[in-house]
């Protein structure tokens, strides 16, 4: 009864919290045993709050709320719940005072990315849906288990190439038992029809842990337009792959290079888990967070595929965000750690309390002192840049549950906003 009442309260709040505004801020997804949803924290250009932080979506069935995404124009917000058989996907229109669209997808949604008018949702058993944001209608479907030969187990990461009208999708396995399947798939955004299916070179058989974990296991996808390069994390090979983007979109590998992300250059140990491509020192950089026991943040020159420096940190920093006009990148120690145990992979997450920020010009020059950190004395999950505040970051704190605003120049917490549940995702808005 309490859960139902809170769910109804969430629906009421959607109507009473004004949705459209000219300001910016941060959106935080949260979850608890009473459900989950999204809170908006809005600020003016001086960094002062605009009204009280408000819950713009709450549903008693979203206790497994996971990833939050925002459309490029800031209009739509999407949130998945990691469940099957009940409501598990929400679309919120921030420009209209209307209730959210809550969908029940017939799979567990795991990753989703947005264009201005559609959201592409990938999940278990190979499913990938294209959903119209304005109506919630599924306008195209594709399934890697049924429509690829050999089959693809499930989408790992999605990357939208708007100008080309294409979607990149990484796959690590061909089924729950693994074996083959390490590939990158190119689909058309319009109808999810297949453009290219590129198997990755399996050129390090000594790193194949077992028939089930055979590698290279591509996961995170990034693109650098300045160099027309594709960048991929290779989980089991402990490396980054670089390739010519135009060739990939034409269905072939060209200028394909792989480089270890470990400090000592060793293969198969680093487990690159997060990837951000950004500028620094006049050239594009790829920043990688390693999830190995040794950890580390590795910085690469995208144009030359050269590892510039590896900064010593504990394992499992979160995805970096850029701030200060692209001069700085920031992350937190989320604490994801991977290692090989026998013929299996072990995943453990132990969140840390450190906020890191990296001077990108210094990183491009390989300067050891370019990485700075601040302890926040609480377990952390993720970070977002704060619009209009060049030196501020918003940090998702797990205990007690809150969003913490930090001024990286002053090195101090400037605001703390409590959440009605543990944070699961954080995004800048608009």
Compute the separation of the termini in Å. Answer: 36 Å
State the strand order across the main sheet: 3-2-1-34
Beta-strand content bin: over 45%
> How many strands, what sense, and barrel or not for the largest sheet?
4 strands, antiparallel
Helix share of residues?
A: under 10%
Number of helices: 4
Number of E strands: 34
Q: Mind telling me the C-alpha Rg?
A: 21 Å
Provide mean pLDDT, rounded. Answer: 91
What report would you give on this structure?
The longest helix has 15 residues. The N terminus is likely disordered. Helix content is about 5%, strand content about 50%. With about 425 residues, it is mainly beta. The strands form 9 sheets. A 4-stranded antiparallel sheet has the order 3-2-1-34. The chain is built from 4 helices and 34 strands.
Short description:
This protein has 430 residues and is mainly β. The chain has helices at 2-16, 144-147, 245-249, 360-364; strands at residues 24-32, 35-43, 54-59, 65-70, 76-81, 89-93, 101-103, 109-114, 118-123, 127-132, 138-143, 155-161, 166-171, 183-188, 194-199, 218-224, 229-234, 239-244, 257-260, 272-280, 283-290, 297-301, 306-311, 321-323, 328-332, 336-341, 344-349, 354-359, 371-375, 380-385, 392-397, 402-407, 412-418, 422-429. Strands 3-2-1-34 form a 4-stranded antiparallel beta sheet.
